[in-house]
Design brief:
five-stranded antiparallel sheet, 2 domains, 8 helices
Length: about 300
């Protein structure tokens, strides 16, 4: 059998060219493709454990779960890629914290109940709470779209923080079925800047003003991945939350320090518990309507 030396040289040349092209592709991919900056080192087990601990700390109990996945905010990454180098941008730890393109998502089943479906049959319905963590395992969002109330109705640590550790002994703690009648937010005026301090009456109701609502929200801010110094208070208002009333506390990112404008929305209850926490990221200039809510299911898993 005879081997054509010229053909062998050509084949060897093609192999070398292919190897060099593959090496260049890998180098370019690692430098420019956003998914190359993902860090899954925390691991599914640790993310699951941290989420379960937060759920319990916030006073909620799960029937089952969680189902934990590593997720990608592809809308945010696409927006960043248009204006900067993803690898260079995420080489700064502060950017990874404030603009999380990657995160862990844990979904807990809180309860299951039978409800009548559209065709008249009883269907088993699940109501879930979703907790999203940063790549390092810190709180990003607490999604409670069904407005489920916590099993542990009073968060003493949050109330002590909100009342500056000195008024907690004056509060009256009734039975659980009366707790939301005796703990209420009472706001005066429409603007969050307006003073509306209401004295705590230890003999009847525990009325809390906007300052207390803000401090309860700040208590949970300190437990999260977000840097409070990067946000400014925008609005505080009372809203219905399930069968009770909570306070919606809205923060906006400081314009001078924000690469992308964010809004953080918390709902806190007058018992010191957390109702929900979501983040809205404006992935285009805020004059446009394009935004992505980190609390909503996104389109890519890793």
């Amino acid at each position: 059998m005879f081997i054509n030396r010229d053909s062998a040289k050509e084949d060897l040349g093609l192999m070398i060219i292919s190897a060099v092209a593959l090496l260049l592709f890998v180098m370019i991919y690692s430098n420019y493709h956003p998914l190359s900056t993902a860090d899954k080192s925390l691991g599914e087990n640790s993310a699951t454990q941290f989420s379960a601990e937060l759920l319990q700390e916030f006073g909620y109990a799960a029937d089952s779960g969680p189902n934990t996945t590593y997720r990608v905010n592809s809308t945010l990454l696409d927006s960043l890629q248009k204006s900067t180098s993803i690898a260079e941008f995420y080489s700064e730890s502060e950017n990874r914290l404030q603009y999380p393109g990657f995160y862990w998502n844990s979904v807990f089943n809180i309860d299951r109940s039978e409800e009548t479906g559209p065709f008249g049959f009883n269907e088993l319905q699940s109501r879930n709470i979703s907790i999203k963590l940063s790549e390092e395992g810190n709180l990003l969002t607490f999604e409670n779209e069904h407005h489920l109330l916590p099993v542990q109705t009073i968060q003493f640590e949050a109330l002590e923080y909100a009342l500056n550790n000195k008024e907690i002994s004056n509060l009256q703690f009734p039975e659980d079925d009366l707790i939301y009648e005796n703990f209420q937010f009472q706001f005066v005026g429409l603007n969050s800047e307006q003073s509306d301090t209401i004295e705590v009456d230890p003999l009847t109701y525990n009325f809390f003003d906007r300052d207390v609502a803000e401090r309860i929200a700040d208590f949970y801010f300190d437990k999260s991945s977000w840097n409070r110094d990067n946000f400014q208070l925008s609005q505080i208002e009372k809203i219905p939350f399930g069968d009770v009333e909570g306070a919606r506390v809205l923060y906006e990112s400081n314009p001078e320090s924000a690469f992308i404008q964010n809004e953080i929305e918390l709902v806190v209850l007058p018992t010191g518990t957390l109702g929900w926490w979501i983040i809205i990221m404006y992935t285009e200039p805020t004059t446009d309507l394009t935004s992505t809510r980190l609390s909503r299911p996104l389109d890519l898993y890793l």
